[in-house]
Amino acid sequence: MQAAEALRNIAYLLEAEGAETYKVQAFRRAAATVDNVAPDELARLAEHGRLETLAGVGKSTASVISEVLSGCVPGYLSALQDRATGLPAGPAGELLRALRGDCHSHSDWSDGGSPIEEMARSGLELGHEYLVLTDHSPRLTVANGLSAARLRQQLDVVADVNEKMAPFRLLTGIEVDINEDGSLDQEEGLLARLDVVVASVHSKLRMEKAEMTSRMIAAVENPHSDILGHCTGRRIIGRQRPQSSFDHEAVFSACAATGTAVEINSRPDRRDPPEELLRAAVAAGCRFSIDSDAHAPGQLSWLRLGCEQAAGAEVPVGTIVNTMPLEDLLAWAAGH
């Protein structure tokens, strides 16, 4: 193990645990510094207790570097790995093993914290066959949503990443806002070019029930919508937000009729939809997608939370689209 590798692994595992951003960034900054120091110089600084003279290296990160240079696995890393090891028990673990990819993730092109290639490599390291990049659409300006021009540029970047990382596949996608009239917030021709489209409500979450129901059904019935993202919009941790009000039977019936998957959003602050609605979607005959909605590499491992949620609601594994091999997923997205 190299020192920079250990520092990045720690950052990843801290992120997965939901650690404060400043702590994660401290380890990533130290890793970036170490990348630019010759091995002999790094060893010399460690020998003389001067690692903390390097920019971005503090007491904790210096200790990690020293342990790596002495041939040990850093204690900080070992403790994080011990907490992270192991699959969920029972059906949740079986679901997690069955997942082949993740259909909802963000990069620093919108409101994520890491470059596209870093997100893709983290997906590969988790054992995914594919990861769908779904940065936000232009209406969500607070999240630096992608204009049509920026999205076209991103498609070229994704193509470059795929050349480097085959057979792993980074799929093109978007988390497109559902406008108040149920239309989708991106050019139709561009949506048609994407591998997977997640359609989500991000604004006016307290619309009247009938209006919200019509809005969501219109989006679900749009031929470009593949997945209905975090359908209730709730937040259950931090700045909490109640569920939106809509006729779930009508919306889930539309999802079942069109083949649009209902997302099981794994973010700890969302866990959306709640169990009673998830069971209703199962009863309606819906398909599902268990997604991390990751905004940073370490958050990709949140899929285990969605699997626990799905297992609790007895979601059949055969209805979960991201248990499909890549070619089957693409065929479903293109043809449902």
What does this structure look like?
There is one protein chain. This protein has 336 residues and is an alpha/beta fold. Helix content is 46%, strand content 9%. A 7-stranded parallel β-sheet has the order 1-2-3-4-5-6-7. It is elongated. The chain starts with a helix and ends with a helix. The model has no long low-confidence stretch (mean pLDDT 95).
Short structural description:
With 336 residues, this protein is an alpha/beta fold. It has helices at residues 3-16, 21-35, 39-47, 59-69, 75-84, 90-98, 116-125, 148-165, 188-193, 209-220, 248-258, 275-283, 303-312, 326-335, and strands at residues 101-102, 130-133, 169-177, 196-200, 227-228, 261-265, 288-291.
Q: How much of the polypeptide forms β-strand, as a percent range?
A: 5-15%
CATH topology annotation of the largest domain: TIM Barrel
Identify the CATH architecture of the largest domain.
Alpha-Beta Barrel
Distance between the termini: 46 Å
The value of Rg in angstroms is 21 Å
Report the top-level CATH class of the largest domain.
Answer: Alpha Beta
Low-confidence stretches: none
Q: Main beta sheet, described?
A: 7 strands, parallel
Q: Please count the helical segments.
A: 14
The side-by-side strand order for the widest beta sheet comes to 1-2-3-4-5-6-7
Mean pLDDT: 95
Question: What structural category arises from helix and sheet content?
Answer: alpha/beta
CATH superfamily caption of the largest domain: Metal-dependent hydrolases
Count every beta strand, where a strand is a DSSP E run of 2 or more residues.
7
Shape: elongated
Residues in helix, %: 40-55%
Task: Write down the domain tally.
Answer: 2
- In sequence order, what are the helices and strands, one letter per element? HHHHHHEHEHEHEHEHEHEHH
Please, what is the oligomeric state? single chain
